[in-house]
Amino acid sequence: MITATTWLLLLSSAFGHLSRVSKCGSNNRSGVDFLGSYRGKETSPGQYPWVLAALDCRDSLTRYIGGGSLIASSVVLSSVQVLRDTSEADLLVRAGEWNVSTTTEMYSHVDRPVKRIVRHEQFNNQNGDNDVALLFLTLAFPAQPNIRPVCLAEEPAAFGGVGCFYNGWGMEETNSLEYPNVLKKVTIIVKSNVSSISLSDNFILGQATNRNIGCKGESGSPLVCPVPRNPNSFEQIGILICKDGRPSLFTNVAKFLPWINKQVEDIAQNDDYETNSKNILVY
Ligand SMILES: *[C@@H]1O[C@H](CO)[C@@H](O)[C@H](O)[C@H]1NC(C)=O
Ligand SMILES: *[C@@H]1O[C@H](CO)[C@@H](O)[C@H](O)[C@H]1NC(C)=O
Ligand SMILES: *[C@@H]1O[C@H](CO)[C@@H](O)[C@H](O)[C@H]1NC(C)=O
């Protein structure tokens, strides 16, 4: 049964593709923890509940290696570049994080191990083409106010490039050496017409409104835009490819929806994933 507090990713048939979740992409505009709001950087705890951190836990210290987004209770969208040579056992995915230096947020973050990494077979390390990967988690994230999936855009052009942004914990500025401890928000002007600059439509081109902003360390972070007729709801149109330290190139999510759907289908039908469809689909 679908209730207000249950997010369902419905399979279109027995094992179909990911279809739209009624509650995906909604956020809490002022955040969920007013004590911790951080206006200077434009984010509050829980404000962007689909934003995830990929952590390398090979050493005793867990290191932030890049971003990702929650697209279903146990499915993460990220990039090949972020994962590099890591294997499943090397990784943790963190949801619900805001200030990495404290655990005093009202709702705590949650870490999950990775059961299966699926990298796009045609990833091109030279030009960043097909830079998309999925992480299937061993256990679904719980439903809580600071953890919620994002919708995936079927048509990036529909947004007209207005009000789009991504979030990450990467380098603040292109020439700084410091990483922020609080989740940052980077406003991006999306250039809707990439064909005119001879770039494949596997990419989305954008420009940060703040020219000094850096993106080092936060590849894989989700670029979202408000849904035109429902501005309190967000759809992911891109995955950050941090090229030359500047956030200007993104993987075009809409172009990869068929690939994403196929991987989810395959996993759902794969016995050795040892999960049932509920684990992937239901909060
Ligand atoms: C936003 O978060 C606050 C504090 O947790 C909560 O009281 C409020 O109901 C939330 N609003 C929505 C729309 O989720
Ligand atoms: C993040 O946590 C650190 C360590 O507790 C603290 O010094 C800093 O002020 C916090 N940042 C914000 C914006 O609350
Ligand atoms: C996009 O670029 C193509 C080719 O240069 C041009 O024909 C088309 O009119 C442009 N569309 C928009 C919306 O600018």
UniProtKB/TrEMBL annotation:
InterPro entries: Peptidase_S1_PA, Peptidase_S1_PA_chymotrypsin, Ser/Thr_Proteases_Immune/Dev, Trypsin_dom. The gene is Dana\GF19694. GO terms for molecular function: serine-type endopeptidase activity. Residues 1-16 form the signal peptide. This is Peptidase S1 domain-containing protein. One of its GO terms (biological process) is proteolysis. Keywords: Disulfide bond, Hydrolase, Signal. Belongs to the peptidase S1 family. CLIP subfamily. Residues 34-265 form the Peptidase S1 domain.
